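Feature request, filed as a ticket because there's no other form

It would be nice if the structure record came with a short human-readable summary line next to the tokens. Right now we just get the raw output. Example of a typical job, pasted below so the devs can see what we mean:
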Amino acid sequence: MANEEKIHPGENDQQITLIDDKGNEELYNVLFTFDSEDYGKSYVLLYPEGAADDDDVEIEAFAYTPDENGDASSGDLFPIEDDDEWAMVEEVLNTFLADDDMQ
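Raw output as currently delivered:
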């Protein structure tokens, strides 16, 4: 199935502002980024700024173009529209969350 993915935890100061369809801005923290050899893309997973550890948090995921430093914070974000690609991203997220629970 998928190749081994290299997960890069988000830096404390790595944040992205998302703008919804109505023009509202919301600040998100980077949970982690990873690259997929199968799809030839980089991905970023985000959660809302100010979310408490015990809150159920909706995590946003995007493919992205890294900036000159390889970061997602100032590169372009792209929606993930392919079902198989979504399944791969969810699998990586579930592995990340399971590993995080073990620590």
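Something like this underneath would help us a lot:
Confidence is low (pLDDT under 50) at residues 1-5.
The first strand starts at residue 6 and ends at 9.
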